[in-house]
Amino acid sequence: MGSADLMPRNLDTRVELLVPVRSEPLRRDLEETLERCLADDTFAWELRPDSTWERRRGGKRSVHRELMESALERASAE
């Protein structure tokens, strides 16, 4: 796991870390979080053919809401 922006301009002035994620439960959690981020249609933008960006409307999935609900569920189980 690491930055998706490993470019020379970023590596010249800061430290970037890459680490393997070997724990299966952690890998599943990361994959689930990534899936949620990619499925988010509430805070999403789409690049149009004319190179302008348009905000999606009428979305049903919010990664922010889902992650907050998940955190609350984990906190109440402890």
Keywords:
single chain; 78 residues; mainly alpha; two-stranded antiparallel sheet; 3 helices
Written description of the protein model:
The protein has 78 residues and is mostly helical. The chain has one domain. The protein has 3 helices and 2 strands; from the N terminus they run ααββα. It has helices at 8-11, 24-39, 63-77; strands at 45-47, 53-55. The chain has a two-stranded antiparallel ribbon with strand order 1-2. Strand 1 and strand 2 form a beta hairpin. It is flat, with a radius of gyration of 17 Å. It starts with 7 loop residues before the first helix and ends with a helix. The mean pLDDT is 88.
Average pLDDT score: 88
Strand content: 5-15%
The profile of the biggest β sheet is: 2 strands, antiparallel
- How many extended strands? 2
Number of helices: 3
Rg from alpha-carbon coordinates: 17 Å
Number of domain modules: 1
Topology:
Blueprint: H1 8-11, H2 24-39, E1 45-47, E2 53-55, H3 63-77
Antiparallel strand pairs: 1-2
